[in-house]
Amino acid sequence: DKQVKNIEFYKPSEKSQEIKYIKERRMKLGGNLPERTSYAKAIKQPSRDIFENMLKSSGNREMSTTMALVRMLTNLLRDKNIAPRLVPIIPDEARTFGMEGFFQKIGIYAHEGQKYEPEDSEQLSSYKEDKKGQVLEEGITEAGSMSSWIAAGTSYTNHDLEMIPIYLFYSMFGFQRIMDFIWAAGDAQTRGFLIGATSGRTTLAGEGLQHQDGHSHLLASTIPNCVSYDPTFSYELAIILREGLKRMHDDQESIFYYITVMNENYKHPKMPYECQKGILKGMYLFKEFKNKGKIRIQLLGCGTILREMIAAAEILSKDYNIDSDVWSVTSFNELRKDGMEVERKNLLNPTEKPEKSYVEKCLGKREGIIIAASDYIRSYSDQVRPYISKPFYSFGTDGYGRSDSRKKLREFFEVDKEHIVTYALSALAKEQLIASKDAVRAMKKYKINKNKPIPT
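^ that's the sequence the OP posted. Answer follows.
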């Protein structure tokens, strides 16, 4: 009675039936220490030929990175080792992503099979539901789709069977909508690919603030075992996808990938020489613009905005005799991780020669100020600012989305080639490398209103 009154903790004796029963159960469950085991047989890596076509120039043919991804997935479905383990997951946008060819090829999973005649039955790529279907088309339920992705991505440890789940969604409806599920996926050591399609605040034209994603990569950066990329060209995507398969299945790393792809069509160049390491590390030198100018700058771009950087470099070279190095930044997130790791190592070893971060190795000996721009808010590219010793200016798409054309959106958010040229000239004037009147003339030439409110 005294113990009840004081609400004391009650513990049966070691010899009691209760304690004996609990210990017996625990031993049958494998002991007192939690242990994660996996006896899954590793998936044999696909032939390099599967990705080879994507390393070449597309010639005069224009395509989006979404289309390039679908072609790679189609090639993977021809690999007898990969095909049975591939789990394409789509909420409801299969046709938007150009994936309707999968319906007839591998079918949509339905545990009772097809029970209706689809409205598009006369089309070549009509809906085909099947008990043995492979595509998980969940309808408009991102939470359900994510749960399926986690189930397939943890199958290697829960069922000793490795799977390759690839979940494609409108990028705004991924981290923005189901962040808690993605955090849980990381905690559960899920392996697989998350694909943020129709990404970029100015690239998904005309769909306003609900759909236009400008911050998913920042949300991805909060998850320790998420490896994220924003590639511009098909060869970058191919290298990243191939490396992801290797790391998760050959090397057995408990990581997952977040890759953004776009719906803007353009020509893709062939892969430059010796850039694979840079693609995976987060940046590489795409092109040097040399016109024997006395001034040189560094231009960093990613996703579709890299193309605006390339166009800006051409204008600077032709009209202003300013040379530039254009860098394709496939991941500001990966550059930040590397920078933090190197900074920590240097602080813990004060008596040793400091190491340089990868971004500093790339830019340290290069001449000129640095201009960075992306289709995401400025905080995305700002992540590398602490690891750069040169003057650094970043531009992005801070604010809500708008319903307009790509050209108008990029003009509004000030990430088009005209704004990049003007800001570069103004930054050079600030550094007293050119006369300020050159920047003023550019503003007049491109009709840039300096009194316009900051984009929001």
